[in-house]
Write a structure and sequence with these properties.
Blueprint: H1 3-29, E1 45-53, H2 57-62, E2 69-78, E3 84-87, E4 99-102, H3 107-141
Antiparallel strand pairs: 1-2, 3-4
Amino acid sequence: MDFFNALHISATGLSAQRIRMNIISTNLANVYTTRSPTGGPYRKKIVVMESVPIEVFESILRSQSESLREVRVGKIVEDTTPFRQVYNPGHPDADKTGYVSMPNVDVITEMADMMLARRSYEANVTAIASTKAMLLKALEIGR
């Protein structure tokens, strides 16, 4: 594997984790949103990532396209778990019994997911830095 493939793989990881962090931030921002454009409370969104072969010309020539894989966001789906029911009869969106349907976003779960996304992002940054250091050492050998 050449250095540029390693950089490309890590860069796709950075991009995927950035998108994941954006979705987590959206979920946290809407933790109390009881009205959405589709009607009803906000539904938590989940990022589904997938591993795909690198589409680099050199990899295809070397028949390594199956061994070298990058990550990308396959799709963003809505969580289908039921909404939380909170008793608050004074709320404008309360039903006849006084319960309000709240988003299915759990703050603790979102914070744990955020820490995982952050660690994954940091790991990809470290991989890029290591690849860069290896490349610089290889260039020093040629002197």
